[in-house]
Structures
1.
Amino acid sequence: MNKIDELRQEIENIFDNVDNMKKLNELKVEYLGKKGKITELNSVIKTLPNDEKKSFGMKVNEVKVLFNSKYEEKRNIFEEEEVNKRLESEKIDVTLPSTKIKRGSKHPMSLTIERIEDLFVSMGYDVVSGPELESDEYCFERLNLPKGHPARDMQDSFYITNDYLLRTQTSSMQARYMVESGGNKPIRIIVPGKTYRREDDATHAPQFSQIEGLVIDKKENNISLADLKGTLEIFVKEMLGDNLKLRFRPSYFPFTEPSYEVDVTCFKCHGKGCNLCSQTGWIEVFAAGMVHPNVLRMNGYDPDVWGGFAFGPGWDRITMFRYGIPDIRLMYQNDVRFLEQFDRKDVD
């Protein structure tokens, strides 16, 4: 018991001479380590008579609690001093001139699609989306391209299995939406999204973006090629300006009849001919036409009652036209020097 009283008195005074964390931790080892002074007292308990063990153990525990209390009190003081030193050394002078923070900007593709969606929503269209991993059934068969059809060779598709592929066109959503509509509802939608083909040059990329447009209505409402042409003219005027011309060329697509390739005057040479437009003065932007009766029939619509048109502009090319970008690959390289040019407000 005398040893405990001496240790208690020692602990009351020993912390007065501790002036840093290193000494404080050394002190903890000296008293509470494996061979520490307080720890050694615990080993004495087993040598005592049974009637003295309890009171002795309580006294040892009181000394241990005292030590820990003193230790924590001192440690808190040192930690507070350390925080104050850091605050003093790391403080910021808010009166100094600020450093310019580099601000991010929207990608030109994002700016373009936002404008396109706003335009078509104002014309009464709904914006929908669909899967990028598509079944052969919806990507080809329900669009009047049965297995073995030669037009499939034009797609250069990325097949994942024999039945699934990365969609080559957002036209697959034509079939999906018609099936979901049950064959008895008018449709007016656009479908922006990614598509995939094995192409790679200044005006093509293996991953590119397309906007599918589809209008279906009863034939008594006289949806015609004139409506398609008027829609595309409004689109080009709003997105690319009044000074560009459109050219409709008869073409072939299995899912439309009649079908057209729609070209726009080359923005780089203004129709004179250059490397971007392959010296033709024109760049293809749209594939369009009247929805083929077979497509209507295979997806639940009676072609004797319903009709409509479809179109598919390349969202990437619209962006190239809109911002004067000469190479489609620039938009996918994630080069900040290129992207920071679009950190501005569009001018109407």
2.
Amino acid sequence: MPTPVEITRVDPFDDDAVNAWWHAYAAAKTADMGEHATRWSLEETRSELQQHSEVVDRRAYLATAGGRVVGSGSLALMLKDNRHLARLGVTVPPAHRRRGIGTALLQHIEAVAASEGRTTLAADTSWPASAPADGSGQPGREFARRHGYDIALGDLQSRLRLPVDDRVISELLDESAAASAGYSTRSWVGPVPDELVAAWAVLDSSLDTEAPTGDLDLEATAPDVADIRESEELIATQGRTSFGTVALTSDGQVAAYTQIVISRDDGNAFQWGTLVRREDRGHRLGLRVKLENLRMLQRHTPLPPQIYTFNADSNTHMLAVNRRLGFEPVGRMAELQKRTV
């Protein structure tokens, strides 16, 4: 007879519980994606769970059976916008799969989300680029399918090995600068400068709806400088380093932005948002701000070995930009969705 699974909410200030949660999470992520598993480090995770946030309510859950940790789960509830939405995560190390542990975790977290009035459930799962493009046969995709989660948006995970030859960057910069004459750029390390943060917040808040969203049930979020500053506080607490670049119109308006964040713990860099305002598209500004940001990053020491990024399969323009920079596909991620009403 199977050992009953007990699911408990993790106290973020209980070091042993957080450690146990992270090791289950990391084992599952590594099993699914190998060297390309883009997981948060233990201390980054601890900092996130402990942060008092005005933006998102983050919760972690631990599954145990017979006194052993057999799985972990997560729940994120947005507190300002998209209050119909819950983001869920379920991770079970390979040694404990096919025993109903993932199902027990998922059902528990779904029930919590329902009690909070959330009617759209979102999750994600990843698989290597060498696997079928639709994820057929992959553990996370098949688990999601069995539990009623559909792919709302497919993403390509790409990696750029560093350094990129500065001559290549210069050639591409010359080309993009010729197409974007009349615009200037500004770059920095750390928090967004005060005089730019309001415009940065506008672009950042519109990323989820301006970039391809497929069938995702997302509402536009209201720009809020306080949200940006809260995110920056977490980045600082985690020991991460943020690199930002914007393109400016001749009258000083922010026309495009991009951000790369480097993890102190695993050494990798992660490309976060890149967006060009609608009225400023068609001038290769996306390429230009990415190049300027990359050049700044490469002049920072120590240099990370690689940058990872995710883009919607349907975002052909940004994928073309990334190919020109030298990004290569290493995996796929499905953004999953299930509506309960």
3.
Amino acid sequence: MRTHRTIGATIAVSLAAAVALTACSNGGDSGDGPVTITFWNSFTAADRPFVEQIVQNFNDSQDDVYVDMDIQPNDVLQQKLLPAYVAGEGPTIASLDASLFPSYAEAGVLAPVDDFYSSGLLDPSILPQASLDATTWDGQVYGVPMIATASMLYWNTDLFEAAGLDGPPTTMDELVADAKAITQYTAGQDTSNTYGLAIPETQAIPSWAVLVWSEGGDFVNADGTESLLGTDDTIAAFDFWNDLIQNDHISPVGLTGVDGDSLFSAGRAGMLMNGPWASAGFTDAGVNFDVAPVPAGPAGQFANAVSVNMHLNADATDAERDAAYQFFAFWNSVDSQKIYALGAGFPPTRSDIPASELSDNPVSAKFSEATGGRFYLQGLSTFSDIDNNVVIPTIQKITTGQGTPDELLPDASAQIDAILAG
């Protein structure tokens, strides 16, 4: 199996050849008119209008820089981005999830941006430390925050009331009890059952990671050199939650992120761990809901940290770099962050905007106080290989009865160790 480290080395060689043959096509510093920089991102959901508004505001605010933005579905963006960079045709700026950027940095297609933080354009002390950590690779900073949050627990207030629950739970023991009380399950009635907690397995923030962390398990060690999937604590965590799915039916098996959102939107899931981007859809669906911090388990209180950051093309000219830095600062300005927070429900990237100024969007105000954020498989250039080819298939085997955690996790752990060894 080819790991991302191997792919990264191949891409780096290809990039060197491409740079020798292909002129950079990201924009110009010809001296005539504004410097045009290109910006690729995948903000195709309900927050798209607010991204477009901020970019338009930037373009209207001055005559020196023009941002030409291309918003694409995430799967399309991921298919196009690396080949475009290798061919010398990539965007000046690209937005990437924190889990994906290390493979691009390793491939040599992104430029370090440490000098942005020393330029005085933006004080890094007001930004989320988790985002700064998540954009650091091999001792250098490669990105600037675009959005940052931790997941929270959405809970359906009507289902809680119908089950005689005050809600929301503050511990995982309470969450389990509440999930059991809400669940109304009859075998074969998949389209009408009500579930206590929707637990997506794919195409969503990794809910299983939070459940495993809360019980003291983990996936890799702190420095990303060894798998912990086969440890006793991790096996016990998978056993605990899989038993609740199989025997208490608190969640359907095989959910995607869209399935989980749809179940909650239909009023058939009492709880769901998700980010602020889901709130608009639930509101439009007429669901009576609220959000609360993800409950604490025996090992502590954890949530999924989510950070999407803006990255600079390694081939950017000096003029393009300066232009990109102006846009990075504008995006993270007080005015821009209030537009995005109030419109899209996300917390601001800045710590100096009080929650009281976000009261017009109560979801944004609450997400500003989310706690316990932790990145899943942080800083690994092999993230996609491990997640897509080992962790997700193993979870699917466990939840579909193709083996027990005790049987499957040690082998999966050995696969991860082989990938980490590269």
4.
Amino acid sequence: MTALVDHVSTARRSAANVLAIRVAGAGLAYATQVLFARLMGKADYGVFATVWVWTAILGHSSLWGMSQAVCRFVPEHQARGEIPLVRGFLAGGLAFALAGGLATAAALGAVLLLWGEAIGAAHAGPLAVALVIIPFFALQDFVEGVARSFGWTTLAIAPLYLLRQGLIAATMVGAVIGGVQADAATALLCTLAAIVMSLGVQGALLLRAVRAVIPRGPRRFDGRLWARRSLPMALVDLTLLGLNFADVLILGLFAPPEAVAVYFAATRLLQFAVFVQYAASAATAQRFACAGARGEQAALRALAISTARLSTLATMGVAGSILVASPWLLSLFGPGFEASVPVLAILLAGVVVQTAFGPAESLLTMLGHERACAGLVAAALLAAVILNLMLAPAFGMVGVAVASALSMAGRGAALAIAAQQRCGFPTHALVRTARS
């Protein structure tokens, strides 16, 4: 019992630490986005938002689930004493991340060469900068996953959400002071510089930490096993990216850049609430994998229920605070941005409901049910796209917000049902602790 309590309390402390860093990072990110919107104006800020969304999608998807797979396989192999497999996975994963990022950048380059004129100069120039960002983005995504797999959550996220965000703002201010025009391309160039610098710091610290716990030695590779289990995770990652950004991309098909800018500003505030889920996942995913490998069913159940309850309470608190302050916070972006307050309220409701269904996604992917998870998330993405396409033309920002909120709630419910069927216990926040 003592070990179980220690397991849960350690996860809680780690999640709280992650949440504190992510909230601070969200504050920096919010300030950076306000800065960008003020310097660039609605039109250029809308272009930047669209291109950045594509950069994040392509950069993350180029890993094909590797950033999540490392959180499963490294703790699993460590728990079983398979250290040569840990070395092999880390080395192979790093090479795969670099190759995937370069291949994705090359594919985007081909698209720009063939259809650059059709895309338009306003987007083609910033997309050209994104070509260079994508490989570094992918590498940093993998490095974050490695740090999380060892339980080093501060090292995993502080360089991304504190150092990187601070550098983005600082380089943008420096560029404008130096006489560079504040447009979407400049903002992306500043983002590139910040990613490279923060990745250098994070990579050096991580290499030192890994060498301290995993000494040099022989490597073993089990490519068939890793690929077979990682591909469903890749599908989950890709579909989650689609779920996170489908609203912005589809809105851009039916609305001008100015409307995209206003909607994107609301999603920047939404991130404060979403970060609660991220903090819970970052702190518990590798622990689910370890407990599953050791057959500790009681620890799994206790950790899942505790995570669901604390995440839901924290999300509700954060969401309520954001909504109260949203008129003022959105007005800082510039005139007209406060029009997205209703949109933000709808999106926050969707996040709260989704969080209440618990960490079902992490349980499924970490315990060998990644195929079921992938299928459900893919179905949720399809539903989200259909709903967005139905509602965006007639209702604009409000329509895509409703579509996104319904998709989030539906995905949470479906995953919770699947997790209960496969893991043997409920994951939602209302489950009774006494039930065994």
